[in-house]
Amino acid sequence: MKFDIAIVGGGPAGLSAAYSASKHGAKVILIEKDPSFGHNVRTSGVTWIKEIEKFEISREYYNPIKNFSFVSPTNQIMISGNFNSACVLDVRKTYQYLASRAASEGSTLLVKSQVIDVKKNLQGHSSILKVNSPSGPLDVEATLIIDASGFTSFVSRKLGYVESWKRYGIGAEYECYCDNVDNETLCLMVGQIYSEAGYAWVFPLSKNRLRIGVGIGKPNSSTDPLVKLNQIMKNRLPPLDTLGKIQPLELHYGMIPNEGLRTTSVFDGLIMVGDTVGQANPLVLEGIRYAIEFGRLAGRVGAESLQYNSSRDSLLPYEVANKNLLEKKIKSALKVQSRWLGLSDSEWHKEIEIIKELSIDEFLDFIKSDFTYSKMAKLAFNHPKMMVKQLFNLVLKK
Ligand SMILES: Cc1cc2nc3c(=O)[nH]c(=O)nc-3n(C[C@H](O)[C@H](O)[C@H](O)COP(=O)(O)OP(=O)(O)OC[C@H]3O[C@@H](n4cnc5c(N)ncnc54)[C@H](O)[C@@H]3O)c2cc1C
C-alpha cells in the first residue's frame, strides 16, 4: 500500500496530523494499535476551554471547571474563579470526534493495527512500515512518516534517532461513580501521603462522575502509583472523605515524558509530534492541546513538504515553531517542577500559602506555565512577600 504520509499512533497528535495533512491534499493513512480511538485512556483530560475551543472542541465534549483547590496533609486552599476557564474532557468522545474529522477529510484510519517495524528505502525517498492488522500483515510505504506513537516514540527509536525517555511520570487513575461531586472544582493533592514525587488529583466529569488519580515522577520515586492510589482510596484521604460512595468504573494508566523537548523533531522523511518529542507542559502533565496544535502543524508542513520528498530542510518550519513556541516555556516549567518534586510536607504547607496569594488570573498564568518575562516580573513586583518573590525569581533565572 502506498501513501504520501503514514501516521503512527491515533492519540490527539496523530489524529490531528491526519486531519490537517488530508485537508492540505495529502494521501494519508493513520495506524493505531488499540481496537478503537480513545479505547485505552492514558490521560486525565484536563485542559483549557479557550484553547480547546480553537480546535472546534465544544461544550458537549467537556465538563467546565471554575475553581481550583489544593490539599496538603496540613493545609487546604481554594482559588475561586469568576468564570469557567478549565475543563475535564470526555477523552474517548473527544478522540472519536478527532478521528471522525480526519476521516471526513479523507484519511484512511486503521484500528487494532500495530506497527512492528520500519525501514528506510533510501533510493525511493520513502519508508516502509510493517503492520500487523486485522486483515493480516501489511507493508505500508510512505514518503513521510509522522511519529505520533506517544511515550514509546516507536518509529524514531526503531530508526535509531532517539532513545527511550529517562525522566518521566507514571499515572494511575480510577474513573468513578461518586455520590457527592462538586463538578465545578478540580483538586490537586500534594505531600508524601499522596505522592512522594508528584501529586494526586480529583477531576470531576459530572455531578456523579470523577477521576481520582496519582502521578509519580521517575526516577525520583520507585513507588507504583497504583499502590499509592489504592491507599488513598482505602483510607479515604481528603478530599475523598467528602465524596460519599465511591465506585471505580474504569482504571486508566499512562506514562508521560518529563525532560523537555528532544534535541530535534525532524529528520529526512520523519516528523515527531506530541509525547514522542516531549511537547507536554511538565508542571501539571498537560499535553493534549499541544498534541492537537502541533499535530495540525505537522500535518500541514508535512503535506507541503511532499514536493521536496519531505527532506529535513522542507520540514524545518515545523522544527522552528516547535522550538520557538515551546522550548522556553517547558524549561521554566521544569525549574518549578524540580522545586516541587523536592518539597517536604511542611514546605508544601508554605508553598500552598504562596499560591493562595495569587489572583485567579495570576494563578491561571502560573498553572498554564505562561511564564513570559513581563508577566513574571509583574508578579514578583505585585507580591512583596519574600516567599512569592523566590518562586518567581526561580522562573526568571536563566
Ligand atoms: C497520567 C497522565 C495524566 C495526564 N493528564 C493530562 C491532563 O489532564 N491534561 C492534558 O492535557 N494532558 C494530560 N496528560 C498528557 C497527555 O495525555 C499527553 O500529552 C497526550 O496524550 C499526548 O498525545 P499523543 O497523541 O502524543 O500520544 P498518546 O495520546 O499517547 O497517543 C499515542 C498513540 O499511539 C499508539 N501507538 C503507540 N505505538 C504504536 C505502534 N507501534 N503502532 C500503532 N499505534 C501505536 C498508542 O496506542 C496511542 O493511541 C496526561 C498524561 C498522563 C500519563
TrEMBL record:
Gene Ontology terms describing biological process: phospholipid biosynthetic process
Domain Digeranylgeranylglycerophospholipid reductase catalytic: 172-241
Gene Ontology MF term list: oxidoreductase activity
InterPro entries in the record: FAD/NAD-bd_sf (IPR036188), Geranylgeranyl_reductase (IPR050407), GGR_cat (IPR054715)
UniProt xrefs under Gene3D superfamilies: FAD/NAD(P)-binding domain
Alphabetical keyword list: FAD, Flavoprotein, Lipid biosynthesis, Lipid metabolism, Oxidoreductase, Phospholipid biosynthesis, Phospholipid metabolism
UniProt superkingdom: Archaea
Entry protein name: Ribulose-1,5-biphosphate synthetase
Species name: Candidatus Nitrosocosmicus oleophilus
Phylogenetic classification of the source organism: Archaea, Nitrososphaerota, Nitrososphaeria, Nitrososphaerales, Nitrososphaeraceae
